[in-house]
Structure formats: C-alpha cells, structure tokens
C-alpha cells in the first residue's frame, strides 16, 4: 500500500509540473502514466531527452547553481557563472559545444 501512495504522489507531482527537465524525463521513464485534468490515469509515451534539449537545461541549472553558491557559500563561485556564460557565447558563435561532445560519447540521441 505505501508504494501505491508513493506512486500516486509522484504522478500528481508530474501532473502539477513540479518535477521538470531532467527529473521529468527520468520519472516518465519509470512512471509512464500521467493524471489527466479529470483525475483519470492515462498511459503516456516516454519523452526522450535529446542533446538539443539537455544543453540549455544543464546551462540554466549551472547558472542558477553558481548564483546560489556565490550568494550563500563564497563570492568566488561567480567564476563558474562567468565560465558558463563564456562557453554559451563561444558555442553560439562557433557551433562547438563541449557538453554536446560529452553527451554524444555518453550515447544521448541527437
């Protein structure tokens, strides 16, 4: 019974949009069921996380993380924000993204 309650909570979190980005894809892989607006359970196809979707997710997460670390831990964490910004800038100009290369080697779909 506790597993059914935990599954129900996870399904409601997915429905409400609390779990997003990378976590959303992971949860949908293991819980491919979604609550509809009427409260009924509905089977849902698994959304594949592609490199094109992962790059802005990871970049945004790194910027937010570095800003929080700069504020709460030490001011030198601002250099991580600068590094991510420079990397995004050069990636936009040159078309080369080190994260995309790493994700390709890990086997993520294009």
How many helix segments? 5
* Sheet/helix structural class: mainly alpha
In which order are the strands of the major sheet placed?
A: 1-2
| Beta strand count | 2
What's the rounded overall pLDDT mean? Answer: 76
Q: What's the Cα radius of gyration?
A: 18 Å
How far is it from the N-terminal to the C-terminal residue, by CA?
40 Å
Biggest pleated-sheet summary: 2 strands, antiparallel
Outline: flat
Taken together, the total number of domains comes to: 2
Task: Spell the H/E element sequence.
Answer: HHEEHHH
Helix content: 55-70%
Strand composition percent: 5-15%
- Low-confidence residue ranges: none
Task: Please characterize this protein's 3D structure.
This protein has 110 residues and is mostly helical. It folds into two domains: 2-43, no CATH class; 51-106. The chain is 65% helix and 5% strand. It has five helices and two strands; from the N terminus they run H-H-E-E-H-H-H. The protein has a two-stranded antiparallel sheet with strand order 1-2. A hairpin with a 5-residue loop joins strand 1 (33-35) and strand 2. It is flat. The termini are far apart. The model has no long low-confidence stretch (mean pLDDT 76).
């Amino acid at each position: 019974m506790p597993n059914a309650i935990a599954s129900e909570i996870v399904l409601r979190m997915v429905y409400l949009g609390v779990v997003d980005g990378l976590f959303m894809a992971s949860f949908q892989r293991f819980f491919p069921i979604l609550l509809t607006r009427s409260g009924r359970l509905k089977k849902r196809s698994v959304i594949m996380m592609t490199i094109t979707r992962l790059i802005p997710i990871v970049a945004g997460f790194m910027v937010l993380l570095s800003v929080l670390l700069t504020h709460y831990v030490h001011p030198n964490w601002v250099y991580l924000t600068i590094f991510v910004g420079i990397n995004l800038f050069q990636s936009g100009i040159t078309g080369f993204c080190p994260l995309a290369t790493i994700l390709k080697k890990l086997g993520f779909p294009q």
